[in-house]
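JOB MANIFEST
job_type = single_chain_structure
chain_count = 1
residues = 122
[input]
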Amino acid sequence: MELTILKSKIHTVKVTEANVEYNGSITVDADLLDAAQIKKYEQVYINNAVNGSRIMTYVLPGKRGSGEVCMNGGAALHAKVGDTVHILSFCKVSEEEADNYEPILVFTKVGNQIASVERYNY
């Protein structure tokens, strides 16, 4: 049996742009994506800590070091500039792998810059 578990989480970033005219997705600073091991076009879930909205979309890499977190297309209807969101990715693992798997957690500071990268270890 395979289980879908948390692969990584970019914790508490601020939306820097909401562009409803774009075709869709979320654009995220490539440094944040690399730290979270999230690939271009990968499916992600976005949880909005301000309005409770939860959506699924895919990622596009933004300019490195920019702190960019841009909600695009329909996703822009679920968050506005300044909202705090969490970006989560998931992976499939065997039951055996799940017992020892430790997801990546990327913490940020002002400007959506990386503060630390840690592994969940419960």
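[summary]
The helical segments are 30-36, 95-100.
Strands lie at 2-14, 17-19, 25-29, 43-48, 54-62, 69-72, 84-94, 104-109, 113-119.
exit_status = 0
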